[in-house]
Amino acid sequence: MAAEWEVPIESGPIPESGTNFDVIVVGGGPGGSAAASYAAIAGNKVLLLEKREFPRDKICGDAVGGKSLRIVTELGVRPLIENTPHNRVTGITFSSPNGKKITCSLPIEEIENKEAGYALPRIQFDYMMFQKAVEHVQNSGGAVIQNFNVNEILVDESKGSKKITGVSGIVGSKKEGLELKFNAPLTIGAGGYNCPVASTITKKCHGEPMRDDKHYCGAYREYWVDVDGINTSQEPIEIHFIDGVLPGYWWVFPVGENAEGKVVVNVGIGMVISEMNKRTVKLKGLQKSIIKEHPYFSKRFKNASMIEGSGKGFQLPFGSPRKKPPSYQPRRSAMSGAMCVGDAAALVDPFSGEGIGNALLSSKIAITYFDKKKHKDGFPSELAEGYMNEIWNTLGPELSNSFKIQKMVKKKWLMNWVIGKANKKPELKGLLEQSLSSKEAQEELKSTWKLLKLLLF
Prior knowledge:
Elements: E1 23-26, H1 30-41, E2 46-49, E3 63-64, H2 69-74, H3 78-82, E4 87-88, E5 91-95, E6 101-105, H4 108-112, E7 118-119, H5 122-139, E8 143-145, E9 148-156, E10 163-171, E11 178-183, E12 186-189, H6 196-204, E13 216-225, E14 237-240, E15 249-257, E16 263-272, H7 273-279, H8 283-293, H9 297-300, E17 305-306, E18 312-317, E19 334-335, E20 338-340, H10 356-368, H11 381-408, H12 412-424, H13 426-435, H14 439-445, H15 448-456
Parallel strand pairs: 1-2, 1-12, 2-8, 5-14, 12-20
Antiparallel strand pairs: 3-7, 4-7, 5-6, 9-10, 10-11, 13-16, 13-17, 13-18, 14-15, 15-16, 19-20
Helix pairs in contact: 1-5, 1-10, 10-11, 12-13, 13-14
């Protein structure tokens, strides 16, 4: 019998070409599904477009942090997650290049009250987000189309300024598919790192760079079972700063049990693309060498098995601040007629690589800027600017701090020293543990003086 997330999602009839909507959302991942849901809940007629057909895999580390919990609860997705196999994250284990380890545990009350984060395969999480979005969109009179390939983002230049007015594309194969065009005063770009809405906003309409390899990450992921030391579906996730992988890291994330009762583990590696190019690194080969040859990890994987076909690579656009941005930080993500969210807006955390929380939050913020009555003739440019400023004011401090930490981990000696100190100083370890869930502790970690005092004295 197929698992719930293995059954196709019925998305309803395809609307006629030329149909007008209040909001068009390009991309059915977590950010796009959240944007479509919030827009529909607000009373908008929404068109949600997804280029693939669910169920579909998405390459990721599979961690869904605490930042996401409030939003998945608001959208009615959390009960679905609780009823599907997942790992309730109890903390994070870090290791330094010299092999020293520290486990930072989440408060036990958060775990008992189900307020801690999850780790579960994206094929499950994305399925549930999309399934709930289909429900919200259809209930508000909108439509959902799967297997829709966007050919063009429509731009109106008739009044001396540029305004995005909708999309055109094909349902099905390029040769035999149905060509369709739709219009809306607002188009939301949620199509990932290579989103056509984002590309139109940055490159086509404003002549700004879409990509900077210093702020992009390459990553590779596999699923394994029978990894030594991982026995339950309530385990810490692991982040390892291994010599040869820095300034990136190697992760081991338990994501729940399979049908045979074995714990499935997401095992992957990530590194800034400019660093990969400089060193001509191939992540798949680097991961293989860790699993086969590393003195500690080769023992843990001695009797483990990789799930066939699960090895896949992907890219992440970091939200790290640019030194000399042509306009907005981290890059331009909105204009008249359109806003981008999540990866399409380059909002991935540059240290942890986590992007779901920021995708969900940016989607919620974006919809608050749109009023279908006031903006029936097009979402205005001044509100697009307001959105970009709010996103950076909200997420910028966190993203900038993560960028500083990303640069710190390049220094092997520094990672060895910090983790060594944390093991010896209960106050420092306590602060690190509190920072996993406490905003106040996270603010303390941003203080250079606070860190120096804890490390040196």
